[in-house]
Amino acid sequence: MTFKPLALLMLTAAAALAQPSFEAPPPPTAPVADAGRRQADYFQRVDEVLNWRAARIDLKDPAKSLDMGAIAVLLTRNEHVDLCSQRVIALMKEPGTGPFWMFPTVCVAYAGRDRLSPEARSAIREAWRTARQLRGDTENHWVMYYASLYLMAELYPDEPAASWYSGKTSAENLAEARGFLLHWMDLTTTVGQGEYNPCHYIGEYAIPLLFLSTWSRDPEMRQRGHMMLDWLFAELANNTLNGVLRGPNSRADEGTAIERWNALTSYFCWLLFGNTPAPAGYGGWGVYFAPLAKNYQVPEVIYRLATDRPDDYVQRDRARTRRRWRYSDELSPAVYKTNYLRRDYAVGSTQGGLIDPIQTHAWDVTWAEPDPRGKHNTLFSLHPHSSPRAMQAYFSTYPEAMITAVTFEGKPSYDSPDKILGSSPFERIFQDLDTVVALYDIPPGERFPQVNGFFSKDLVNVTESPSGWIFAQGGNTYLAYRPLAPYHWIPYLHYAGGWAKEKLPVGGRLLVSPHLKNGTIVQAASAAEFPSFAAFQAAVTALPLQFSLEPVPTVRLTTLRGRQISFTHGQTPSVNGTPVDYAAWKLFEGPHLNAEVGGRRLTITHGRLERVLDFNTLTITDRVLPPAGR
Amino acid sequence: MPPARLLLPLLALFPGVPLAAATPAYDFFICANINRNYVIGSKIETLNGVYHRTAAGAWEHLGCNDTGLTAVAFDPRDRQVVYTSALNGLWRSLDGGRTWRLCNGWDITEGRDVAVDPHAPDHVYLALPDGVAVSTDRAQTLVRREAGLPDRGKYTQAIKVDRTRAGRVFAACESGVYLTEDGAQHWRQVLPTRETVNDVQQSPHDPRVWLAVTQSAGAWLSRDGGLTWQQLPGVPTDRALYNGTFDVTNPQRLALGSWAHGVLTSEDGGATWTARNAGLPAAPRVWRVGVDPAGRLYASVVQATLFVSDDFGRTWRRDALEGSQVNSFLLLPPAAP
Prior knowledge:
With 630 residues, chain A is of the alpha+beta class. In chain A, strands 14-15-10-7-6-5-4-3-22 form a nine-stranded antiparallel sheet. Chain A has a six-stranded antiparallel sheet with strand order 8-9-16-13-12-11, covered by helices on one side. In chain A, strands 17-18-19-20-21 form a five-stranded antiparallel sheet, with no helix packed on it. Chain A is globular and about 75 Å long. The termini of chain A are far apart. The model of chain B is unreliable at 1-23 (pLDDT under 50). Chain A binds chain B through residues 94, 96-101, 132, 134-138, 141-142, 146, 161-162, 166-168, 176-177, 179-180, 183, 325-331, 392, 396, 398-401, 404-405, 408-410, and chain B through 37, 39-44, 64-68, 87-88, 91-92, 99-102, 105-107, 109-110, 112, 129-130, 152-153, 155, 157, 174, 196, 198, 215, 239-240, 242, 259-260, 285, 287, 302.
């Protein structure tokens, strides 16, 4: 052995044994100005994931430790290729069904197309003939399914129908997959994503898109994949607070709704921006992004959106609901999102109503934490809606069956009165800067006739004021919460995971207000804006506030920012006497992201940096804008 | 035994005559999902899909292992031609289930039911959560045929072809029962409902008699070929009915399946109804009921098993297919030898 390989081996071993980032202190959040350094840091993080995953493989027990993710890592590193081939052959004897099997298999098929043994490659190919693949029923399922089918049809072109599980030729599979992928990109770039700002599901988009941008033979699809990655990560960057995604989210879960950092989004923020700790195990699925990650790097303009926030900003965007099969006049009504981001906290919301029937997180105030791990750094309320009709609107199912099914299938809290997840048709929300008004008009007979407010274990100085306001502090953020109807407190109990069978205490309380006509007002502010917590309380208590609950909840409030909000459940809110014109909302509108509805064109701006993603021309255009005032 | 293609016209020629006297034998099929709590991505560990009841009383698996099958239909000319509605849309086999082709593209999904027109066997009808698709070439191509269905409110849970006339089809939709008499070129509403019609069935004894079961309006019977409907008294309307069935051996017998009410039976042509749940699990969660060619009544109880009754629901015993959920029962004239 020569010196050089030995040194490399030692370096690799040292890297593998090094403390993983998810156990290390939080990374510095200051942006890195030097492009070379940014890239080196990024590549180092990518290698950290690959080294960590490789180090966990027990070569003596491949059946236990060599899954498709591990095989993809080894193939990328060109290590133990014979063992990978043997393991692939074994795994392909019991192929899975559906997109979660398809995309890992595609990853291995491509990573190993020049390395796996002919027998192993044949085993993969044979599995794609014999194992019927289910397409699933969600947006992320279909993106994974069709990106996978597309790439496999490209890898094995000109093959007959009998050689595919679908009974279609390679060309037919390719055409079908391409048709959907273009349709989805068109939909996303004209009226928005259905699964907007997802917590964990971001991986189900980012990974297939990276595959397409790297491996597609068609330069158009490679370009589209790259542009969609930029689109996805620009939204992520713009909506995170120090690398932590906050609400609103189309789909969250119990864990991510309260421990906002603990989501796959944090893996991507850590990897791409380096501005938050990685989640444990790099988020699980994240390992499938890492082998190809060096083929993609966010441009500086997106990097700076995430890391360089000199000013507060408001971003207003549109998205769409999950597809409604029935009980709705529209297939996918528009979702209107408001986000207000500041150094110490961020406030985000939708307009309320049913969006995804189970997993929507409609609004919150999330405050910054130096180390967000284990912190429940958020405040919000909701109506815990559970209904067969909602299930039937979105799923091809019967009224009773689905509720029972989802509680067994990864959504255990769905039918719990004390849940903290889900949208309600009876909730209407309006946000102006850092004020949120959520109004509830819950009909009699509703299964859970109450409003739940989540009060974190990490709030301090929680004070129930005689004024009716509840004051608290989270991090450097002062919070005021005004329930509009009487309430009581219960401990917050938590399903620790989708398959958990019992709820456990994790700290925190729920404010439970068991009244049909109801509402929540939240006002946030930076601690630095007031000389003391008492001064904040006094300022909020002095705010002109009028509200009534009959016949429907209505609020008139002058906010801390001096703006007069008027909001009645079921009616258009107004600010300073001007009604909010939702119909005029753009797909993206703010200082950093701008796009017209129907435009297929996103302009990403930070300071003088600009990138335009134009799906009409399939071009990426970078500019440096003239200095302000010139 | 005459081949299927001869039996079907025979049924049409004598629409009012109970066929029990002829006592035709039938083949009996089910579509069963046997994987408890399967979610997209998890490994399929059991055998799901189409099963055929053998003469010996066993369940014989046919075709592909698919957790998402909702219904099966056959070409009456050739039992080797099989159609299954499924999560992916519509699958077709031309070789008795050995190989399959997905007949639709990405714009069709979640097939709820499938039917073949016995008088125009190249015509295949597919019920979808967003309407109806039709093929006139044995599912080589599929097109939407929804004129007359509402833009919204056309969630279609079940689709059945009138065996007496080509192109006469009933669609059980979100907003009622719709009828076409020209192969889905035009639809018209024949039974309006506030919520989804979950099943529609034609009597094996009298083709003019149709049964519709609904989510919130109980069960309805038509005695004039589906033109007018009468609500069946005694059938609860407070909770959803999931499906209904006739007894091929007895024209007076009907059964309904319901998650909330379990099994309801009538032995007087629908005039009176009785809950028949003794012997089924408490809170039976009945997903489907069906009757086999011998008059045995079946109840698929969600996440339990298939139950069978020899006395039309008075007593029940456990059948095979532990953990199954049967999505459809199908009686067919026997295949040609």
